[in-house]
Structure formats: C-alpha cells, structure tokens
Design brief:
The protein is α+β, with helices and mostly antiparallel strands. The protein has five helices and five strands, in the order H-E-E-H-H-E-H-E-E-H. The longest helix is centred in the middle third of the chain and has 18 residues.
Length: 159
C-alpha cells in the first residue's frame, strides 16, 4: 500500500507495543499531563500493523533451553532418541498403526496412520501417555527426558 494512503485507507484495528513509538502514560501518579490517558505515535510503514508484545519471559526461557540442549550436544540427544524411534517404527505397525515416517529418515520422531483415533486417545489417556494424536495420525517424538520405560508404556497402552 502506498505510504501516503496508509492513514486514510487502512487503520490498525488492534494494538501491541511493537507498532508504536514514543508511548507516554498520563494516568499514573507523577506522570506528565496529556490529552488522554496514553499517547503514542504509530511507527511508519508496515511496522504500524505489527500487533503483539515481545514475550521476554519466553525469550529468556528459550535461551536457557537452547543452552541446555547445546551443553548436552545434539549428537548425544540423537543417539539417545534413535533407539526409541527405531523401536516404535518396528513395533507400532503390528499394533495396527501403519508407519508414515520412512525408517531411513533418521528423524527424532515417528508418525503412524491412526484409523481409530478416539480409541487411541482413550487408551493413551488411561495409561497417562502423552503423544500427538491428531489428523488420523499418531506421532511419537522421544526426547532427552524419555527412556525405554516410556516406550514400554506407550506400546502397552496401545496393545
């Protein structure tokens, strides 16, 4: 949209702190007087339509999570998860879950067709096993905090 038309044709309908500059609050004790409780200037260009607020807590958490994963090492994590993935790829088809993920993919997850979604969800809930069951698929994603006992619980719940 032409910049000169932005104020006339398309006005922001939602607001977040990423789309304005020079925000001033006038409604707190000690804050400067102003024509309204809050005044601001919309940023120029497309930035004025960027709604949302920067999630600082999420960013800090992700930083710590990534540092933890890097400290362990991606190779070690993959070496830990691979036998669990290989096992579910071997054993799930015999339980009535045809494999979607090709075994040679080497991914840390395995997806299966799930022709009986509601039954699968009920079985997993009873066993307190949490895997993704959606879109007529069941996806198993062993992680650094999983072990063979978790895979046993999954397979036992579905057998």
């Amino acid at each position: 949209m032409k910049e000169e038309l932005q104020d006339e044709v398309l006005r922001p309908m939602q607001f977040g702190d990423r789309q304005y500059d020079n925000i001033q609050y006038h409604n707190f004790p000690g804050s400067p007087a102003g024509p309204a409780d809050v005044t601001w200037e919309l940023r120029p260009g497309a930035a004025r339509y960027e709604i949302g607020t920067t999630p600082h807590l999420v960013i800090a958490s992700q930083l710590q999570s990534l540092q933890y994963l890097l400290d362990i090492g991606v190779d070690r994590i993959q070496a830990h998860a691979s036998p669990m993935v290989e096992r579910v790829l071997r054993e799930m088809p015999a339980l009535g879950y045809p494999t979607i993920t090709p075994p040679e993919m080497g991914t840390p997850l395995a997806a299966f067709q799930d022709p009986h979604l509601d039954e699968t969800l009920a079985k997993l809930k009873r066993a307190n096993v949490d895997v993704k069951v959606k879109w007529h698929q069941t996806r198993v994603s062993p992680a650094v905090y999983n072990n063979d006992d978790d895979i046993d619980a999954l397979l036992n719940a579905l057998s």
